[in-house]
Structures are given as structure tokens and as C-alpha cells.
Amino acid sequence: MAVSIEDIKKLRAMTGAGLADVKKALTEAEGDFDKAKDLLRERGLAIAAKRSDRETSNGCVLVKSVNGFAATIALKCETDFVARGEQFEALAAKVAQSVLDSNPADAEALKGLVGEDVTQLIASVGENMQLGNFTRHTREDNEVIGQYIHANRKIGVLVDLVCDSAATAAKPEVQELAKNVAMQVAATNPMALDGASLDAAAMEREREVYRQKAREEGKPEQIVEKIAEGAVKKFQKEVCLMEQPYIRDDKKSMTEVVCEVAKAAGGDIKVAGFSRIQLAAE
What we know:
53% helix, three-stranded antiparallel sheet
């Protein structure tokens, strides 16, 4: 049977599928919208399955925040061309909004919310796509969420600052600090917030590596432990955010930078945590 242009436009708006696919589905379903949607969904799943083994090394990381909540998500695809398209960017925004609104517990829960949208876009553009990592942060009145997206949209960071009061949190210098700490995390990719946050067993393994290295170099046993401890402290300065040199002034540690801003703001500030998503590292 013939289908009208109005029906084709309506179903396309509902599903996001391609014009030719919508027309074909409506024709086969004899104008029944529900049947046509089922046909499009089945074909979308089939196309997605065929493309599921293709590498998804491109895409984007997106940060979205509203009303005391912030989310970072990664959406992956095959090419940079598709990653910069309007449909892909709209889907990334929908994924971020779903994380904000529904706070999914894990990847499967997020897939349940937006998996069909991903499948339909795969069918529409003919390129494999995958949901990447995601994180969601909440903010109280005395807290600040710093956010940063790298220019290539492949690294996204959220940082949590806790202040002594809402007044301190609202000060411009504290807001700026939150952004700068997020930039630090993006640039240096720290393993942990501070030394206490590092896995104790992992750190002991590091010490043992340095002990063995010192012994192999013929160092006296009485100084092996000092050498190992010194090496571990150096390692902590490299991988712990609050012990790292500040990227804008390497004569200061991040702890010193936070203390300086807290003093200027007339309050207390603590970096409570951070999350970092890097597209290529997933």
C-alpha cells in the first residue's frame, strides 16, 4: 500500500530511523505504526549486531550539570566525522540527561535506559556505537563541583570540593579553584586523592620492588628500607592529586594551592574526590 509523506515524517520523528527505512517499514506494516516501529527495531538490532565487532576508538565525553547534580558520560563510535554530527551529539546529551535523571546503578542499567536509542542511531548512520563509562556527582549548598572537558572532548573530569559554608562555596575564587583542580586531574591523571587513598597492598608491592632494586645495585641492607621509602614518597607525589605539583606553578603542591585559596576566601576547603573519564582509555 502507499503511505503518506505525513506518516513517514511522523514515524521518522518518533524513531530517528532513515527516510527509506521508515517508508519501507510503513509499507510492509500496511500503515500500522506499532508494527512499523517493531520492524524498525528488529532491523536496527540486526544492523547493530553486524557492526558490534567494529572498533569504537572515537566519540565524545560530555559533562552535564543541573540543580546540584553533575554527570560525565562517554559515547563511542568509529569515526570522528560521526562523533561531530548532530545526531550523535544529541544522543550523547540524552545519555547524560538520563544519568542525571535516573542515576543508573551500572552499565546495564544505563543500557536499559538508552540502549534502544543507540541501536537506532547505529541503524541510521551505519556505524558501530557503544556506551562508555559514566559517573554522577551530587552537590550540597556548601559544596562545589568543578568540571572540565578537554578541547578534543576525549577527557572529562568532575571534582568535589567541600567547604565550611555555603558562603565560602559561592565565592568566585573557590569556583575558579574547582575548575583548576579539574584541569589538574585532566592533565595528570592521578591514581588517588592522597597517600591515604592509595591501596595499601599495592604500595607495599611498590616498596618491595624498590627494595629488590636497591639490593641488586649492591646497596647496604641497613639503608635499603630508607631507599625504598624515599622512592615510594616520590611515587606518591607523582600519582596522588593533593601531593602533585600544580600544573600552573610547579613550585606549589595542590595541597598548598587549596590552602592559599581557602585563606583568601576566609573559610575551609577540602578536595573530597574526583572522577576522570578518558575515551581512549576505556
